[in-house]
Fold:
Amino acid sequence: MGIQLDIQGRVMVATLEGELDHHQAERLRPQLDTAFENSPCKHLVLDMGEVSFMDSSGIGMIIGRYKNAEKRGGQLTLACMNSSLAKLFEFSGLQKIVHSTATVSDAIAKMEGGK
Structure:
């Protein structure tokens, strides 16, 4: 799994690529947490557009990042999910606590606009 981090204002965008399984989630957690904690960002966007697979470990990783953003008074938003990830997102109940948008720019606009 590849990851690219970008800061846009108060929003950190983490672009993920590949499979988000147990091994990759374990590798990504500390990398994302360290980058987020050491940034001036309040919000986190996970760009899921290039994620081809996600299991329960990926869901756990997302919930943990949601809690980290919440501690900073921010939000976590998932962007660009394909249809299979969107179904998993819905079936897991994540949509009740984590926002999703069609694009990264929609997520950033929503967060920066406070909507």
User: Anything to note?
Assistant: Residues 22-37 form the longest helix (16 residues). The chain has a mean pLDDT of 93. The first strand starts at residue 2 and ends at 8.
